[in-house]
Design a protein that fits this description.
This protein has 393 residues and is an alpha/beta fold. The protein folds into 3 domains: 4-66, PUA domain (Archaeosine Trna-guanine Transglycosylase, Chain: A, domain 4), CATH 2.30.130; 74-187, Transcription Regulator spoIIAA (2-Layer Sandwich); 204-392, Vaccinia Virus protein VP39 (Rossmann fold, 3-Layer(aba) Sandwich), CATH 3.40.50.150. It has helices at 14-17, 74-90, 130-134, 136-146, 208-217, 232-239, 252-265, 279-285, 308-325, 343-357; strands at 4-8, 22-24, 28-31, 39-43, 49-55, 60-66, 100-105, 114-119, 122-127, 153-156, 173-176, 183-186, 189-192, 222-226, 244-249, 272-276, 293-296, 330-336, 361-367, 386-392. α6 links the parallel β14 (222-226) and β15 (244-249). α2 packs across α4, α5 (208-217) runs parallel beside α6 (232-239) and α8 (279-285) packs parallel to α9. The longest helix has 18 residues, at 308-325. The radius of gyration is 22 Å and the shape is globular. It starts with a strand and ends with a strand. The model has no long low-confidence stretch (mean pLDDT 94).
């Protein structure tokens, strides 16, 4: 299938020959009359066909969907969704004790601009490009036709993820089915998912394996979960036998959700308390040597390269405060989900914080996103979650 044509400058097809899915605006020599979200066909300066993708009037001008002449239709999306689902099945995510996972992780599943998380029988769909927004009904139909045994409801939630300049009607709504409750299960623990009003798709499934690692280390420890949001690390720590758990977030709404999730699994358990407070202020005044397991999982400090410098300062300050206050023999789980910050930059920021604290610090684990957030070998930029587990003498 050939769509509206885009012709590249000579030599600008080299990254596409290596199946990188992005075409930058500066690579385009000329194009048909195209608008945000249009399906386009790319050609070299010599007229050779490259593939099809979605156009957007931004620095990333085309997100490639195929490197052949496949029609981009419901059948195409069904094929890609089925392949994504089979991978999740193969890695053992569909179990009686686990019904929450990421089904589509953008470029990692060869569907750039699309994220789908599954919670029980509900798929929460987020479009990050106009093209995926316009394809949302095809995607919803493909989900229920290919995965109808699992997905009964499809909720579209893209008000905060679509480019605001595109002026799209991004109303959050059910495309298929409706509300059937908000409780999902992860590794045998229950949690409420607020996909209607919560951040992202309602829960951060990307920390599933890292939460399980923390559970392994929690026994007998006093655990501090900073930026707790829905409290995932907190209820894993409690199942792991933590002596006490304190959940901190600046949002009263997040704290209420944390308390509801803890109550789902550990009703009336006196080991848990929660505090609504800014993380930096809390760390400034908290008692030294009380907590011997601290989690730092802040929201993205840098969503764009322009914010990189300030983000690295923020990570350094945050980690230094925690390292100065943590009890000797304590463990620090520290993360960055900023795609603009690479592994080396984050590690250097934490290294600087350790030096500033004057403590002896060892790296026990280097963490990343789980297998249902795959990284395409052709798109290394898809690695966004960085984490370290530190032992502090």
């Amino acid at each position: 299938m050939i769509y509206k044509k885009i012709i590249l400058y000579k030599g600008k097809e080299e990254s596409l020959k290596r199946f990188h899915p992005w075409v930058f605006s500066g690579a385009i020599a000329r194009k048909d009359d195209v608008e945000d979200g249009d399906l386009v066909s790319l050609f070299t300066s010599g007229g050779d066909f490259i593939g099809n993708g979605h156009y957007e009037a931004s620095s990333i001008a085309v997100r490639m969907l195929s490197f052949d002449e496949s029609a981009i239709d419901e059948k195409f999306f069904g094929m890609r969704l089925k392949a994504a689902f089979e991978m999740r099945r193969a890695i053992g995510l569909m179990r009686d004790d686990n019904n929450s996972f990421r089904l589509v992780h953008g470029e990692g599943d060869f569907l750039p601009g699309l994220v789908i998380d599954v919670y029980g029988n509900t798929a929460v769909v987020q479009a990050h490009s106009p093209g995926m927004h316009f394809a949302r009904k095809q995607i919803a139909q493909a989900l229920t036709s290919e995965l109808g045994d699992v997905v009964k409801n499809v909720y579209y939630k893209s008000e905060t993820t679509l480019p605001y300049k595109a002026a799209l009607d991004s109303t959050n709504e059910y495309l298929v089915g409706g509300y059937e409750g908000d409780v999902a299960v992860e590794n045998g623990l229950k949690f409420h998912v607020d996909w209607l009003r919560g951040q992202k798709t309602g829960f951060f499934v990307d920390q599933r394996e890292n939460r399980r690692l923390l559970e392994h280390y929690a026994r007998g420890r006093n655990v501090l979960n900073m930026f707790c949001y829905t409290g995932g690390f907190s209820f894993y720590a409690m199942r792991g036998g933590a002596a006490e758990v304190c959940s901190v977030d600046s949002s009263a709404k997040a704290i209420a959700l944390t308390e509801a999730n803890v109550a789902l699994n550990f009703a009336d358990d006196a080991r848990h308390k929660s505090v609504t407070e800014d993380a930096f202020k809390f760390l400034d005044v908290m008692e030294k040597d009380h907590y011997d397991l601290i989690v730092l999982d802040p929201p993205a400090f840098a969503k764009h390269k322009s914010a990189l410098k300030n983000a690295l300062v923020g990570y350094r300050r945050l980690n230094a405060k925690a390292l100065m206050k943590i009890k000797s023999g304590g463990l620090l789980f520290t993360f960055s989900c900023s795609q603009a910050v690479n592994k080396e930059q984050f590690r250097l920021a934490v290294f600087s914080a350790a030096a500033q604290s004057g403590r002896k610090v060892k790296i026990l684990h280097q963490l990343t996103q789980p297998a249902d957030h795959p990284i395409s070998i052709y798109h290394p930029e898809g690695e966004y979650l960085k984490g370290l587990v530190l032992y502090v003498e």
